[in-house]
Amino acid sequence: MNFFKRFAQNRGALIGLIILALVVLLALLAPFLYPDSPWRMVQRPFLAPGEVAGFPLGTDTMGRDVAAGLAHGAWVSLLIGLISTVVALSIGVPLGALAGYFGGKIDDALMRFTEFFQTIPNFALAIVLVAIMEPSTVSIVLAIAIVSWPPVARLVRGEFLSIKHREYVEAARLVGQTHRDIIIKQILPNTLSPVIVLASLMVATAILLESSLSFLGLGDPDTMSWGYMIGAARTVMRQAWWLSVIPGVAILLTVLALNLVGEGLDDALNPQLARAR
Amino acid sequence: MTLLSSVPGRLSVAALLVTLTAPVLAQSTPQAGGVANVAIQPEPPGLMLPLVQNAPTQRVAGNIFEGLLRYDADLEPMPQLAESWKISDDGLTYTFTLHDDVTWHDGEPFSAEDVVFSVDFMRETNPRTRAVLAHVDSVTAPDDSTVVFTLETPFPAFIQAFEVGTLPMVPKHLYEGTDYYNNPANRHPIGTGPFEFAKWDRGSVIELDKNPDYYEAGKPYLDKIYWHVIPDAASRAAAYENGTLDIMPAGSVENFDLPRLSEMEGSCLTEAGNEYFNPFAMLWLNNREGPTADKRFRQAVMYALDRDFAKNVLWNGLGNVPNGPFTASLPAHDDSLTPYPYDPDRAEALLDEMGYDGEPVRLLPLPYGETWTRWSEAVRQNLEDVGINIETESSDVAGWNQKISDWDYDIAFTYLFQYGDPSLGIARTYDSDNIAKGSPWNNVEGYENPKVDQLFADAAVENDVDKRQAMYAEVQQILHEDVPLAWIMELAQPTVYRCNVHDLITTSIGLNDGFKNAWIEH
């Protein structure tokens, strides 16, 4: 209750949550609203929004319904955003925890490994990975996860470093709890709030990355995504600007919403920080 | 009344004469100098035309390399490296007299020995040329400027086979006794053509310089050709509009942009230069394994494809929906064949009959730009509409070459040149002797039919036009029924260019014959 109140105090976060809920709803309803494949050529190409009844957002260069593409694309964007974040967390959290908890040589080794990934520009690495693995949903999720876990590892390590000398951790050690129990039951739960905030921002970044990859033609060729829609419409910008603008706005709103939500979560989970602001 | 009307009438006739003659006079005298900026899409995988046969390679390298002959719009031979030629009455001996004073770009003299070497080189490296040369018994060079081809049997289409892409001249002094594919000269190709290779900034520009020692006096007129690699179609169009590019070869302008660009002031469009190649878009269907091995499945694909949609929406109405394996412009084309109609119900019925169980079928698009990507999306949708489960694969040009050469595909986009005669351009796709891994241009679908082999072989060496026609008609009917591959479109090849570029296209292979005659009015 307290948590939600604090969250709702941030007006932006509330708006973000509403937008996000609408996008999720759109994604969930896509198979019911547009049961046909979004690739299906259903009308004359290049219809402007509203030009023909039943096609509120018009049709693209091949006569495919833009609204259907948008709805199905929402599902793809959210799914890839979520799954790649989960994968990134599952790499970053254990590595950061081990490095922070044990310190010493383990810490050195794991952090050098992490830095190795941090020194390569994210997007360039993602492009290379997808190109090597051949574009598909799986390779895109993996590529995004591989480029986005290092900040998680560093964050978790930092939290572990500051928590591991607290008295309750010392106490747990004294009563003979195993390292595993101490890491999982004592320290990890106390590092979660910054990780949750980071994760919400990572979903936003992942959606942007996926869109950028699709835009460059490195998306899964069988999946309708927002980035693909912009990429395919880019060449006809002069004839049909709305084909690029509509999915572009969708990406903008979703990413913005996720950022706002992340900020709200930060406020709600760190009340001291929020009040100090 | 008569006076009033006749005076302005005369005036306007005079004015008309002036406007008509002025440009004609200017056009008749080529002006030397100037630089041509041309789009090349996609970037060629290499420029060693004798080894790399992709369309973008042929387009650029036709300036560097030359064949013995060129062909006019009616496919009649014209001199190039061969000054004159003679065919014996029995059709078995072809004697070519070579041009004097021809040198390679590195200064070595070109001679008949090079021709003999090139024939062996191409026989070894190019399946299509190999198939043509199968009729040749011997190639000899009695002296430095004479080459004699002796045939085993008459082969009327043989005179069509000396085009630069089919039989380019390879410098013997650089390649003899070397590993052709790893020869350092591949990176700096040496030919006899009007332009020399200068520089290639990968991903940016290919630069060709005028060959100052070219053997045809006064030619070429241009000082330089820049081939700009601009992968994005919108950027290419903008580059043409703002004057960076002067010539947009077929395939570099998105079809929906053609009307806009060609209607700009000072912009011209021609469909000429397509007569020899007649590019034919097809879907390879792997006849060896998977659902595509079943004839009913392949027929279902033909019924499932909405080819008119592709023509009208993707190709802006340009091109032609084929009725079978031969393009309509070939004399041997059988007009009586009914094209497969767009009939999804029929396709579904055929799939039911064969018991297709939804096994995934891979679709490999041609990575040649937007239109081809969109086309593969349309084809995928057509096929999925009748219940075929499609998985699209992505690749670049080199990967596409590789996959098709290794037969690692189920359905794959391609387009093939027709080379003016069925025995040169079409038989290679269906002849079972032409099944060999390593080339994306032979019988890669793996179709085997002894009857078809026999008919193609007999027709190729048949001197009687009517008999030949009958054989080709029978072949077309068999292939039409068997559907070894899906014939999707005879492609138009529109070139958009600035009207002050003259004599750009003077042969039936268009830009691929190089810019020898082209000049810019300035």
Chart the SSEs and their pairings.
The complex is a heterodimer of chains A (277) and B (522).
Chain A: H1 2-9, H2 11-33, H3 66-102, H4 104-118, H5 122-133, H6 137-148, H7 150-163, H8 167-174, H9 179-215, H10 226-233, H11 242-269, H12 271-276
Chain B: H1 2-28, E1 35-40, H2 55-61, E2 69-71, E3 77-79, E4 82-87, E5 93-98, H3 112-125, H4 127-133, E6 136-143, E7 146-151, H5 172-175, E8 195-201, E9 205-210, E10 224-229, H6 233-241, E11 247-248, H7 258-262, E12 267-270, E13 280-285, H8 295-304, H9 307-314, H10 344-354, E14 361-364, H11 370-385, E15 390-392, H12 397-405, E16 411-416, H13 422-425, H14 427-430, H15 450-460, H16 465-482, E17 485-490, E18 495-498, E19 501-502, E20 519-520
Parallel strand pairs in B: 1-10, 14-15, 14-16
Antiparallel strand pairs in B: 2-3, 4-5, 5-7, 6-7, 8-9, 9-10, 11-18, 12-18, 13-16, 13-17, 19-20
| Order of H and E elements of chain A | HHHHHHHHHHHH
Task: State the major sheet of chain A.
Answer: none
Strand content of chain B: 15-25%
* Percent helix range of chain B: 25-40%
What class do helices, strands and sheet pairing of chain B give? alpha+beta
Largest interface: A-B, 21 and 27 residues
Q: Under the CATH scheme, which architecture of chain A would be assigned?
A: Orthogonal Bundle
Rg calc of chain B: 24 Å
Q: What is the name of the CATH superfamily of the largest domain in chain B?
A: Dipeptide-binding Protein, Domain 3
Find the CATH topology of the largest domain in chain B: Dipeptide-binding Protein, domain 3
Helix fraction bin of chain A: over 70%
The CATH homologous superfamily name of chain A equals MetI-like
Number of helices of chain A: 12
